[in-house]
Q: What sequence folds into this?
């Protein structure tokens, strides 16, 4: 089992998400990340991340290609792409010294404070999945009240 | 033009001549337009599931889309079993159901069902028509989708306001499906295929429904003869080659012929064409065709490598592939096929030919199949219900033409046979149509006797009556220590009187010699008919390869 990234180009019509996701549900595969954006052509591009062995990954590629609204499926090699995720972090109310430490840690990780009042810090953080994971883990539930994550988006370098 | 009128104009542009259906509240405007429609014949079934099966049987017998139509809610959900059945067996059914008006969608309105979601996993594709302007193009796309590539069912959800609203609509011109583009094989794949075929010493061809749908039976027979390769088929492939042809070994698999199962086990090249290597055909995949290189030709790339290892995948239309390979083979100097293999095949055919000439009373089902086969000849169409009756038909009946054997394969839907036979008879009125039925399966859609009688659709159901859910009983006998649980069907009606109660023809054959004459009488009666054939209730379908077992290790007694 290995993490897979599919970039699925499909018609932008109601129900397309259901048509794509149910193919995974049927085969008992959990989608770890789903993002959708609309291309300049008007088609939708879904970035799907999931775990599967080689055989199942190839099978899923064919299954998705067979689905009527799917136009193309690209298998993404993460090493030849730039993969990014955005996270919005909100802390619990923090005492001053604690708050400054948290802000420092977020900024060290390349994050940016968007709002802070009454000891509650709201910050944004972008990076690859692991970088964000590291900061979220390090701050932990003691500090963080809420985390909103975008799911992963990517673009190929070629 | 209203949406309802446009629907019929669009259906006619697709060449539709028959619709099977039942009206209801959410589709009354369409049925109101039907009142003025004289080119399309609507056949009122008595259950929506039967409408779907009838459309499916129609499509399979004719090779063109079958159409069914229902109201919203329960009418539409009743279609789902029939539609999934068509999906599993790649049959182009177009189903249309009414829907509550678009403004009330999602409010749990009366007889509202979220059919877009319900139909999604059981169709090749499905649509909801949001505006009357979309309607003509949606109908065209639905039929095109149903018939292109690997055929399959399509559902169209038609809200009531779309049926009644009017617009200046342009109906697309009439089309014929043979103009649809077909997928050519890659020339490199063809060269490789020819090379593998020429160098094989013991080739076997495994043909399925894809051969029938691409109209490639003649090419299949040519390839078999040119290569000196025997042909085995899937259930869907029965009739792809005349089964009385010296190179035909019959059906493969769990209830396949011994000769077919052994030939596949012994072969060194297996050429699968338009098949999906279902678990019922392969048995244990680790011991399936263990000595063979496997070539898999299919129009649907998802099927290739799904169930068995494949040495040469070819994504192509079966007929175009066969033509290309035949052209390639004819260029090669044919070294005569090792006569050893053909002698072996001939021996398998001769020695393992199944016995059918039983004289016992109660009647043995094998004998009943033989009698039906003799009466129907090459021109009759056989449809089957599901269970033991189906596997006796599949194992023993020699089908001689494509589209003359119709059976529920992938889904194994009890209740399929009778309405599908009605559909087949409507599609091919010149053919005798016999439904080989079991008592259990027949009762699941026996209400369609009314449909058949009223519309003079004269099919004959031969009920192999053993008073049991026979296939379940067989599994309980063989694999569950004969603990027969909930399989006793006592309480079924007298089928002769049931036929007569509907105004049909009914009779009973209790001795083997009576089957032929009574079946002839039934076919000549000018009425839908039931021939009740009480059979030996203890008879099993044998040989049988247990689920997941090896094809060369069947249960024989």
A:
């Amino acid at each position: 089992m290995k993490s897979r990234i599919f970039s699925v180009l499909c018609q932008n019509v109601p129900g397309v998400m259901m048509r794509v996701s149910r193919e995974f549900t049927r085969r008992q595969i959990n989608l770890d990340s789903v993002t959708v954006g609309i291309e300049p052509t008007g088609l939708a591009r879904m970035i799907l991340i999931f775990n599967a062995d080689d055989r199942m990954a190839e099978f899923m590629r064919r299954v998705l290609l067979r689905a009527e609204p799917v136009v193309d499926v690209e298998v993404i090699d993460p090493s030849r792409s730039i993969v990014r995720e955005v996270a919005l972090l909100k802390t619990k109310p923090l005492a001053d010294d604690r708050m400054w430490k948290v802000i420092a840690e977020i900024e060290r990780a390349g994050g940016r404070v968007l709002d802070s009042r009454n000891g509650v810090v709201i910050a944004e953080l972008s990076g690859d999945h692991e970088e964000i994971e590291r900061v979220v883990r390090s701050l932990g539930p003691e500090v963080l009240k809420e985390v909103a994550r975008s799911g992963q988006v990517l673009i190929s370098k070629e | 033009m209203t949406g309802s009128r446009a629907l019929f104009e669009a259906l006619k542009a697709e060449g539709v001549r028959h619709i099977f259906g039942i009206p209801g509240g959410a589709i009354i405007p369409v049925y109101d337009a039907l009142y003025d429609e004289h080119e399309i014949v609507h056949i009122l079934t008595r259950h929506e599931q039967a409408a779907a099966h009838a459309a499916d049987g129609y499509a399979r017998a004719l090779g063109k889309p079958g159409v069914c139509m229902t109201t919203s809610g329960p009418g539409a959900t009743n279609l789902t079993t029939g539609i999934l059945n068509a999906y599993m067996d790649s049959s182009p059914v177009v189903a249309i159901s009414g829907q509550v008006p678009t403004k009330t969608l999602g409010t749990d309105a009366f007889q509202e069902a979220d059919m877009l979601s319900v139909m999604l996993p059981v169709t090749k594709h499905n649509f909801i028509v949001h505006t009357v302007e979309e309607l003509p193009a949606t109908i065209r796309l639905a039929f095109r989708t149903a018939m292109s590539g690997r055929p399959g069912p399509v559902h169209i959800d038609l809200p009531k306001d779309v049926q009644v609203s009017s617009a200046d609509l342009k109906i697309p011109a009439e089309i014929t499906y043979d103009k649809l583009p077909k997928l050519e094989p890659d020339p490199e794949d063809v060269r490789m295929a020819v090379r593998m075929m020429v160098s094989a010493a013991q080739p076997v061809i495994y043909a399925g429904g894809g051969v029938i749908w691409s109209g490639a039976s003649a090419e299949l027979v040519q390839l078999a003869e040119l290569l000196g390769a025997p042909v085995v088929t899937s259930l869907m492939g029965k009739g792809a080659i005349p089964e009385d042809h010296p190179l035909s070994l019959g059906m493969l698999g769990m209830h396949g012929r011994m000769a077919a199962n052994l030939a596949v086990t012994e072969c060194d090249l297996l050429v699968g064409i338009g098949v999906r290597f279902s678990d019922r055909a392969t048995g244990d995949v680790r011991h399936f065709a263990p000595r063979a290189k496997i070539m898999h030709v299919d129009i649907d790339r998802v099927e290739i490598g799904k169930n068995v290892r494949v040495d040469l995948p070819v994504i192509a239309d079966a007929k175009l592939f066969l033509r290309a390979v035949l052209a390639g083979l004819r260029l090669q100097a044919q070294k005569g096929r090792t006569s050893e293999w053909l002698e072996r095949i001939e021996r398998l055919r001769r020695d393992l030919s199944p016995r059918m000439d039983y004289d016992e009373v109660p009647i043995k089902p094998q004998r009943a199949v033989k009698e039906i086969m003799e009466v129907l000849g090459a021109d009759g169409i056989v449809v089957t219900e599901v269970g033991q009756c189906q596997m006796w038909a599949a194992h023993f009946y020699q089908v001689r033409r494509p589209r003359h054997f119709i059976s529920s394969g992938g889904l194994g839907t009890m209740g399929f046979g009778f309405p599908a036979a009605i559909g087949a008879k409507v599609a091919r009125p010149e053919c005798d149509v016999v439904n080989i039925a079991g008592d259990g399966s027949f009762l699941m859609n026996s209400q369609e006797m009314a449909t058949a009688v009223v519309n003079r659709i004269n099919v004959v159901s031969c009920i192999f009556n053993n008073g049991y859910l026979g296939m379940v009983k067989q599994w309980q006998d063989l694999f569950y220590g004969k603990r027969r649980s909930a399989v006793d069907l006592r309480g079924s009606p007298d089928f002769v009187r049931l036929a007569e109660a509907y105004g049909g023809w009914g009779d009973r054959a209790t001795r083997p010699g009576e089957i032929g004459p009574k079946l002839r009488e039934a076919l000549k009666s000018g009425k839908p008919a039931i021939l009740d054939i009480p059979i030996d209730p203890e008879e099993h379908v044998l040989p049988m390869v247990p689920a997941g077992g090896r094809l060369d290790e069947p249960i024989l007694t």
Observations:
- The interface with chain B takes residues 15, 18-19, 22, 26, 55, 58-59, 62-63, 65-66, 68 of chain A (CB under 8 Å).
- The two ends of chain A are 27 Å apart (CA to CA).
- Chain A has a mean pLDDT of 94.
